[in-house]
Amino acid sequence: MSTVTSADGTTIGYEAYGEGRPLVLIDGATAHRAVNPLNAEVGKLLSDEFRTYAYDRRGRGESTDTAPYAIQREIEDIGALIEDAGQPAILFGWSSGSLLALDAAAAGLPVAGVVLFEPPVVVDDVRPPLPSDYVEQLDAYVAAGRRDKAAELFMTAAAMVPPEAVEGMKQSPYWAPVEEIAHTIAYDGRIMGTTMSGNPLPEDRWADVKVPVLVLYGDQTWPALSAGAQAVAAHLPAATLRAIPGENHSTEAATLAPVLREFLT
Q1: How many CB atoms lie within 10 A of CB 55?
Q2: Boundaries of each AB hydrolase-1 domain copy (predicted)?
Q3: What's 123's DSSP letter?
Q4: What is the mean pLDDT of residues 210-232?
């Protein structure tokens, strides 16, 4: 593992694969290197041409955290990785990480292009919107020492997992790592903002993104996620929409890597 130091002194842990044009992979809510090996696998498959950064977002895995949280701090984390690379980077974001990637590009970081995988956007009634006080509820649970309840709220309200299925998840090895970093779920809630409110995307959000954007979704994913991908692609004038056959809200490195290679080249 290597590290960079962000503008506020936060240590960001990462692994880099290969040499060449930089690609920064940005996880969505609850994911980091210890529980999501896919970024490393993608990096290895692209290592012949690209320098791929798989990193832990602040507050997760091997990265530290500095209060108070602000989206700008996470943008600065990405900026520190791009500075390490020494040249403009392509940003790839999973789920809510894709919105962070767009925010980073809009903020003026040296970004050459952005790839989004199933951005969590709800602009109609295809599924219930997030509660208007979603972030406030998450913060309250964490402040009360109930990270388990914060994780439950994320699973039921954001991921739409049935409550009975969440009870089963609690008995699996998957649950402890989610609960451990549940305080960061509110970070993603802030990044999402009103994107899951059931209302159209704000006209001015990402208006400064001028680089090419590729919006991906699996053609077997939930209808809300395919609709969200389509809404984001329509919202961004430089975006291309592409469905990945047979995939849903996750995919395999062997499927994703060729798509990224095509976009990168």
Answers
A1: 29
A2: 40-250
A3: -
A4: 96
Q: Are 153 and 138 in contact (CB under 8 A)?
A: yes
| Pick from 66, 69, 81: nearest CA to 13 | 81
Query: For the CA atoms of the chain, what is the radius of gyration?
Result: 17
CA atoms of 7 and 11, how far apart (whole Å):
10
Would you state the pLDDT for residue 122?
Answer: 96
Name the phi and psi angles at 45, rounded to 5: -70, -25
Sign, CA torsion 109/73/81/118:
negative
The confidence score (pLDDT) of residue 265 equals: 85
Q: What is the pLDDT of residue 115?
A: 98
Contacts of 264 (CB under 8 A, 6+ apart): 21, 23, 46, 49, 50, 90, 113
CA angle in degrees (0–180, nearest 5) for 163-166-172:
160
Mean pLDDT of 199-212: 94
238 has a pLDDT exceeding 90: no
Longest C-alpha distance within the chain, in Å? 49
The percent of residues above 90 in pLDDT, for the chain, comes to 98
- Domains within the chain, CATH numbers bracketed: 2-124+196-264 (3.40.50.1820), 134-191 (no CATH)
Question: Among residues of the chain, what percentage have pLDDT more than 70?
Answer: 100
In this structure, the dihedral spanned by the alpha carbons of residues 44, 11, 20 and 258, taken in order and rounded to 10 degrees, is 40
Residue 60's identity, in one-letter code, is R
What is the Cα 225 distance to its own chain's centre? 14
Residue 223: asked if its preceding bond is cis (omega within 30°), the reply is no
